[in-house]
Design goal:
about 850 residues; 26 helices; about 30% helix; single chain; Aminopeptidase; Lysozyme; alpha+beta
Amino acid sequence: MDDYQGLKAAMIAAYQSMPNSYWHEHHIQALLDKFPEGQVVLKVNDEFAGCALAIIVDGDTIETHHTYAQITGNYTFDTHNPNGDTLYGIDIFVTPGFRGLRLGRRLYDYRKELCEKLNLKGIAFGGRIPNYYKYAKELSPKDYIEKVRLKEIHDPVLNFQLSNDFHPVKLLKGYLEGDKASSEYAVLLEWDNIYFEKPSEMARTIKTVVRLGLIQWQMRPYKDEKELIQQAEYFIDALSGYRSDFALFPEFFNAPLMAKFNHLNEPDAIRKLAGYTDKLVEEFAKLSVSYNINIITGSVPEIVDNKLYNVGYLCQRNGSVQRYEKLHVTPDEAKIWGMGGGTDLRAFDTDCGRIGILICYDIEFPELSRILANDGIDILFVPFLTDTQNGYSRVKHCAQARAIENECYVAIAGSVGNLPKVHNMDIQFAQSMVFTPCDFAFPNNGIKAEATPNTEMILIADVDLGLLRELHNFGSVRNLKDRRLDLFELKRNKMNKLNIPAAINLKILLLAWVLFVLCPALHGQTKNSREDYINLYKGVAVIEMERTGIPASITMAQGILESGNGNSTLARKANNHFGIKCHSTWTGQKVYHDDDKKNECFRKYNAAEESYQDHSDFLVSTPRYKFLFELDVLDYKAWAKGLKKAGYATARDYDHMLIKIIEEHQLFYLDKQSTTLEMKLSGFQQPSGSSGVKLNNNVKYVIMQPGESILSVAKRHDKFRKELIKYNDLSNGLELRAGDTVYLQPKRNKAARGKETHVASGQETLNEISQQYAVKLKKLVRYNHAAPTDVPEKGTEVYLRGRRPFNMPVLNSTNEKPGGPAKEKPIDNQEKSSDESEFEFKFNDN
């Protein structure tokens, strides 16, 4: 109990609304004495991240009405019954700094695995309904629970329990004394262990049906290892989304990184490639935990005692990292690269049974797979790399034979595509497959699944380990049992294993420690401090203020709060600093992350700046925030209260949280840094004062600076003058002036999703609206049955994504702006009188 004070601090942080509701040391000690397996904590760099406490009770006990005090024996835990049949959850929490990282789900997964291991009927606990107080006057607890179940009401606790496969059984009145938020109600929630067997029978502790994910990797150039890891993470994310248990990469999948060493001879180039191995293994170890999937890294080159080997790593989702070696190297590997064969052959225990891994050429030696079969493997994984169809056929047919001989599943995954700038890696051929034994319970041809030849893709297949047990004992033929061991035997010679340097051993031990970390953001990395985050993104916030009129202090405070100083999973893996979900309007990249529900879709950006821009555009384009733009840009308190009033967040003190962050770090000074313009507009706002390239509707644009012309902008960005005239619909003689948007690419046929119409101000032409939304002018003309020079009357809806419905009146418009006809000047004329200004501007005193 040396760590009790740290645990106490974590409990207080987790239950800030109930600071005195923490377990005392004697409570924790009692639980450890009675049922140590039921108590689990998560620690990150010696800091408590979460905790789960449980006891075992008799199922009949919870069938009747009970309170929290009763089920815990008035907090003595004397109700714990080692011979009971139900795991009862006493407490579970994740501290605020580590939320959003799937840790709660991992704690529940631990409980479920424990339940299966102990052969218990299921899990039960009383779940609070902390948002019920908001609806207590109008809804009964039963109606409230039903609306939460139907997603009509959000309850942070109940929603999370339901998303983790728990189902409500009954309502418990007066469950937890003093729980005012829940009106002292709780929902008895249960999870059923479908593997439960009567005590006289053996409990099932290993998954029976295992989902395999094979990555048929395309060789393509990568500028650096980060880009390659990003591509690998894409596939891991996809397989995790399909709940795969394994992700198998091919042999030498990182070979494209040798392109930068193509000026060297082959042996030197691959030794340079070996320099990336430590970093790749570290990243894969984090990804395996983050995405809850066991990753087999194919193979990579590694130097041990100045000798080159072909090795791979099994990164398990429990945090452990284990190494395997290619024992037989091909003649080319030995001759061209100077590569040697390893000596370590072993099976690996995983949460999905025992597995073996043989790299490419090793599958062509049946002794190896038979040794692994003798060790009891269920699945044999074969990452391979072949350049021709005959080479591939050797791997394929040998792998299929191994599945029959050893009564196991065999999964093979290879690479496709060409690498013209990498010596000895010119071409690849592959067709990834999953093979089975050949008997009545399996496919007739012994092929469970197969990929399209020579096409980048993922292959997913479910394999039933239970069928192998039946095959071993009752199959039509029994290859393993029927061996004539009286005539022959296969034995393993004792050999010294590779002398792996201490640094590599230490690396493996440290990576195995991820089991306790369960947090890829912090393993091998330093958390961003708030000061770091401010220094990184304050310039972006100021640019967004200049573009939209949203105070930089508000944007920074929201980014800090929503992204946890940039340390959240979404911020790190998707550059999403504001937790913006996909919704039906999003067509860009996506990531999936557990939030209110499992695997919710969130937007993924190429850079954090895009997230900031999208957040600003959301506030600008959403009607309920329109009133905010009437506020003073320097009045951050009014903005904070306005965001709370408009319902930006559900936290009751959201405005105070923003204000506190702003004042603690004096972010209000950022609001005074703009030397350009303050603009108060009701729609999309024209950026100004910046010569950098930005995006609008995914179209690149710049802001014309004072003294510039279309010709000078074209030269600056390596464009032809006539291209910019065409892109910006200027062929009719209209001009652009300082502060106007200049598109460097053709505008889109439609506005961004969610921007269906534009409400006209009465002072803008269709051309100007076209520039605001980066939509081609001819499309707006067609959608709205109008002329290019039309000025829609105030209040008229201008359609931006499709034709105006026939039952709608035609576009009300004039051919003149208020105050006289629209003027035309030579395109490159930069003079502009004050009475022709398109917007009303006010200069900052600073």
